[in-house]
Amino acid sequence: MSEKYDKLPIDPLFKTIDELKPQFIERLSKAIAIPSVSSDEQLRPKVVEMSKFLVNELTQLGFQDIQVKELGTQPPPVQDANLQLPPIVLGRFGSDPKKKTVLVYGHYDVQPALKEDGWGTEPFTMHYDKTKEILYGRGSTDDKGPVMGWLNVVEAHNKLGWELPVNLVVCFEGMEESGSLGLDELVAKEAKQYFKNVDQVTISDNYWLGTTKPVLTYGLRGCNYYQIIVKGPGADLHSGIFGGIIAEPMTDLIKVMSTLVDGKGKILIPGVDEMVAPLTEKEDGLYDSIDFSVEELNAAAGSNTALHQNKKDILKHRWRYPSLSLHGIEGAFSGAGAKTVIPSKVVGKFSIRTVPDIESKKLDELVFKHINQELAKLNSPNEFKVELIHDGNYWVSDPFNESFQAAAKATQDVWGIVPDFTREGGSIPITLTFEKELGVDVLLLPMGRGDDGAHSINEKLDVNNYINGCKTLGGYLHYYAKA
Ligand SMILES: [Zn+2]
User: Which residues bind Mn(2+) 2 per the record (predicted)?
Assistant: First the structure.
């Protein structure tokens, strides 16, 4: 399958990337060897070492105006009150006013990993499985592979003696896996300075939906997380003594939590569904070609418990409709056995994944109103409170804009197939930050496959995805420059 477009003469770039494959794999292996785990205070020096590795690479490749932005001490909770946040590394390649400027974001920190967790090989020693053509190691796909990908694109241009078709600005952070502390402030501060003149932000930090077909991602759901606190007796009590003669917090909480969502996934809070943007025919059409099946969902979930039995309904409910999940009850007895406790205080946790056009504040109001009404119906002497713990907005872009179309052409050049236009059910908060602060479009251009195991054991990146991924990133810059 293909769509007609004018091909650019960039085969020499692709050929050069193929020739540089050993060097590119070597670069990734050096990056993986630095255990830059941002959540582990003991490993903070390694995160800093990784930032220095990047500065060195950028310098050798000829980047200019390289800046290491210190972000100060990490706010509590921390063991070491003087713990410094890892810096954000900025650099630019070219500053020709006649060219467009693309900002690429990536992160150089990784999730924790221990061999004992069940890894087949040492997580921080890249293992190149040559029979399967797979690179294993923590950070291979999330996000060191893609970060090296952008550097590789520049190296290939240098080797060819080609100019980059755009001005490239890089922004690499070291706290992504730990809440991106300090990043929002930096982006806001640099929006009119270092990031001045940026026309487009491109992020390679997510994955294909499946394992065979490239995707471009144009939407993410948001998340509003709530808790309901129910407080009764002054301490946990014994049901043999107090059962039947006092109002139990758990009973009240379960009653109220059961009014939030039904077993088919329908949100029961009045007014929520009415805020969801109607599905247009054009959007509906995007779901037709997407490579996905009920079987894949069942395999990923490890069960046959799908609520929808066809591809389009599953994807729509994952990406463009809201969902409400009940996560847990703090303070409840949750161990094995048969403890006869009456918990004195319980806190029910749930969240709503949000989509266009749900307004976050309006959603909060609807949630509070519904829960307060349900609590009132109980006529219980217990104390109640419902509150928002945190929220993050959804993001959606226009898959028909010039940046997405440029990435689609590059994908067709490299993979010989029109990519699927997908959304994701989760969030990547930085996407919204860049869009809001810089006022430009954001494109999510993933490199790895859906089964790469980011955050899991045996994280991997297929060599094919790495090398073709570099070609796609490079090709994208050329098509975007001409768009
Ligand atoms: Zn990531």
Answer: 107, 142, 205
